[in-house]
Amino acid sequence: MPRAVDGTKRKNHRKKILKLAKGYWGRRHSNFKTAKDAVTKGLSYAYRDRKDRKGDFRRIWIIRINAACRDEGISYSRLIEGLHKSGIVINRKALANLALEDVVAFKAVTEKAKAALGA
User: Fold this and answer.
1) How many Å apart are CA 22 and CA 18, to the nearest integer?
2) Cβ atoms within 10 A of the Cβ of 47, count?
3) 61 CB-side CA count, 13 A
4) CA torsion sign, 37 to 39 to 43 to 45?
5) If we measure between CA atoms, which residue out of 10, 112, 91, 100 comes closest to residue 18?
6) Which of these, 116, 58, 63, lies nearest to 87 by C-alpha position?
7) Architecture of the domain whose range is 8-118
8) Counting beta carbons within 10 angstroms of the beta carbon of residue 110, is it exposed (0 to 12), middle (13 to 18) or buried (19 or more)?
9) In this predicted structure, what is the pLDDT of residue 119?
10) What is the C-alpha separation between 27 and 101, in angstroms, rounded?
11) Cα 2 to chain center, whole Å?
């Protein structure tokens, strides 16, 4: 059976890959063979990093909470322990947002956590 060299399926497939490689440097955006490798690797990185982004945000929130609660005279780990003991259920995203935007409310939460630790 002869090999199809100029069929529409082949052209469409190549066009799709080269469209995804738009903006790549050097031959990677124009040569199908190298573009195919670059696009495959790029898509796998994109998939992996969408998962990693969640962890990155969690790290940022923890850093912000730690900085804010150090001003209140308590460490991050003690704050979280105090929140668990006092029965306050609040996620780290909301807690970090509270620390940035509503300092008075964050201070109140910190005081509750300290009271639970002291008891």
Assistant:
1) 6
2) 9
3) 16
4) positive
5) 10
6) 116
7) Orthogonal Bundle (1.10)
8) buried
9) 58
10) 48
11) 49
Q: Based on the number of CB atoms within 10 Å of its own CB, is 69 exposed (0-12), middle (13-18) or buried (19 or more)? A: buried
Q: Please spell the DSSP secondary structure of 64-87, one letter per residue.
A: HHHHHHHHTT--HHHHHHHHHHHT
Please say whether the beta carbons of 32 and 18 come within 8 A: yes
> Taking residues 72-93, what's their average pLDDT?
93
The rounded mean pLDDT for the chain is 92
Q: Indicate yes or no: pTM above 0.90.
A: no
Three-class SS of residue 73?
coil
Torsion of CA 107, 108, 111, 113, to 10 degrees: -100
The predicted-structure confidence for 52-67, as pLDDT tens digits, reads as follows: 999 999 999 999 999 9
CA-CA-CA-CA torsion sign (108, 114, 117, 119): negative
CB burial of residue 39 (10 Å; 0-12, 13-18, 19+): buried
Q: Give the DSSP letter string of 29-51.
A: GT-HHHHHHHHHHHHHHHHHHHH
